[in-house]
Amino acid sequence: MALNPKRFRSSRAFQTLRRIIVWAFLFYLRCFARIALLFFRGTIIGIAGAVGKSTTRNALAAILSPWKRTLVITGNSETGIPLGLLGIDIGSYRLIDFIRVTLIAPWRILFLRSYEIIVVEMGIDGPLPPKNMRYLLTIIQPHIGILVNESPAHVANYESFLKTNDLDTIVRYITEDDGHMFKRAREAIICSSDPYIADFATTLPKHKIRTVGKRPEDDITLSHYQPDISGTRYEYDIHAYQRKETFSLILPRYLLPEDGGIALGAAILAALSLGIDIHKIKEYFIASFTLPPGRGTILQGIRDSIIIDSSYNSSSASTIALLHAMKHITKTTRRPTWFVMGDMKELGSFALIEHARVARAIPGSVHHVLLVGQLTKELVLPKLRKTSVKTLVHVDTSKEAGAYLREHLPERSIILFKGSQLLEETIKYILQHKSDTKHLCRQDAFWRQAKLKHDTWVEI
Q: Which fold has domain 297-453?
């Protein structure tokens, strides 16, 4: 009897074989990454948390790179971290790419010798290895740990493991898992305005803790926040490391939420702990700070509109924070304001609660709402029907959303995009300059191929 490939791939034997291969590959990568770290004599800065990791990482990249030889690892997972430590780009994740990585990994163990600082995001997606913090710590252990804001993210992966549907319990568990990063760190930089992190910090040795937040007693206090369609302004009071100063940062190409200022403050605090002068920190930051695509990028749209592209990912906390920024803009401008919201995924049974939280924050924040996807149709649309929202439209796909906006978008609109994947394809329909597609997330060959397969790629 001929073997049915589809039936074999779904069989228990194939799944077991696949798990063995994956674990063998991860073990192989981890071994050579740890050997590479034996040749590293500098400082490792680790960043954890649900919201703000990339902002903190890129701020540190801008500040530290002109000062000392700094390696900023772009991957934050069980594969991305060891590959970064070996200086290997896996490419498009094809079989030939994995074979290539396997062959060249042993020859990359001296890669870290030329660096003095490593900055690494440590992202957890689940309670079990290799997705948890304890596993990542078997690869790399930071000397300085930074824990930015926590919020419900990937909670579907924790629900069955913890056998609870209490969101508070799950987020506390995630915070404690992230907090394992501090066990061998000499310094713990925490966001004091996050209640989960603040509670967890009481279990840490006081001499390790440095805080950034909104309290006067924090080492760095975020004292003022000003969002605008031209960018974002933060002001800080510093009283740490024998310094007492006030200074501001202006981000002219990004609209970030208030908590983005906390993430930047954490990077500033880490740089101060390394001995960099505050004036140099500001100089380096202004000269080269950028964020990855889809994290609040301000782009020019058709009909003199302004696009705020935060399409990379979405959680209720990050979405509500951006809606608060939009509320300020709505009140201070006469331009029409829009919110294009996609489904928030990987929330499990908490999808109802989290989408409802966002729905409550929408009225008064924007004039018009375009919802995309099945979850927004079921969980957000009904809650907005009798509110002050002037326009309320739902479509099923990102392509339909793009077509609707291209036809109906009013002149001089301001549009916030926020969702878990694919809204970047919607944005393509209303870009004023088609060359700006290079500023959108998930546009590389791997994602293009994946989107073409599901008919979600937009060619312009």
A: Protein-Tyrosine Phosphatase; Chain A (3.90.190)
What order do you get walking across the sheet with 414-418 strand by strand? Answer: 297-301, 305-310, 414-418, 337-342, 368-372, 391-395
Mean pLDDT within 45-60: 94
pLDDT digits (tens, 9 = 90+) for 4-15: 666 656 677 878
Residue carrying the six token digits 């024998």: 242
CATH number for the domain whose boundaries are 25-288: 3.40.1190.10
State the Cα–Cα distance between residues 302 and 407, nearest whole angstrom.
Answer: 11
> Residue 72: which of 27, 26, 116 has the closest Cα?
116
Which tens digits make up the pLDDT trace of 103-142?
Answer: 999 999 999 999 999 999 999 989 999 999 999 999 999 9
Q: In the chain, what are the domain boundaries?
A: 25-288, 297-453
For residues 84 and 429, give the distance between their C-alpha atoms in angstroms, rounded to a whole number: 35
- What are the CA-CA distances from residue 316 to residues 211, 353, 356, 367 (Å)? 24, 9, 9, 20
**Beta pairing, strands 297-301 & 305-310:** antiparallel
**91 near 447, Cβ under 8 Å?**
no
